[in-house]
Amino acid sequence: MHPIVAQPTKPVSYVFTHFETSPEATGIHSKPYAVILSILLSSYNLLGYDTAAQLTEETKKADRTGPIAILSSIGIVSIFGWAYYLALTFCIHDFNYLFDVNNETAGAFVPAQILYDAFHGRFINNPAGAIVFLCIIWLSFFFCGLPVNTSAARVVYALSGDGGIPFSSIWRRDRVHQKRKVPAKAVWLCAAISIMLGLPILKLDVVYNAIVSLSIIGWVGSYAIPIFARLVMAEEHFKPGPFYLGKVSKPIRLVAFMWICFTCSTFLLPTTYPLQWTTFNYTSIALAVALTLIMSWWFLDARKWFKGPVKELEQQDEDI
Q: In which domain, by residue range, is 279 found?
């Protein structure tokens, strides 16, 4: 819909060959550095396949359908995400105006500004269409937040059954709401944490960047642990399942591990210069604090009693 409204659109040569660093707005003059930061877009886009992994325990023949669902979700989000980015790029009217602090979005929300300019220019200075379209996008943010909260609650629900998080007895498996059949306490915990993390965003934009970056580092980085373990594991100790890549699995594991390390490092880089209190990337500090708390809890307490996943029968015996 964007290219249909935004007339005229940028030519194909601009979309696929033009290069901008916008040093006036970002302070970034290095093209290689700008290319590295552009990797963030793909990391933002490639989300959601973990939900397919979490649902495998509730599906038939999960050892085969689970990997297929994960690969399918990656393919779907890649295609639609790439199409969305292309549509936005074709709709750019004035690139420099996108980062202008005096524009309609204060230079802070480039996709919204692109949509605003498209509708504002097409319908003779009438931004009503852009406002309606942005309301649809903001509403989609809400519905995107619902599955994120649901997914987080499922993780709390599962880990509490293994005693893997603080106060597991509160969020554990027997705390499922009798009427709604959901782990209500885990849902409310995740909702409360989301609200507390979101409140500082109303005042400081850097908080939002730090929270999003830290979330993706934690989420993507968690996949690096089993991948690295599989890299160093002797082949004779591994029993492949029905969905196995065979000889190509080792180079794929290596590329995947290196990609995760690279993308996680990219999220720690500043995106605006010169470095000030309002432009500094606080993700590194937040990550250091989170790792310090987790490792302190492990060495001081959790390592003394945490034995790994608890089998369902053992959990039921304990509850009885």
A: 204-315
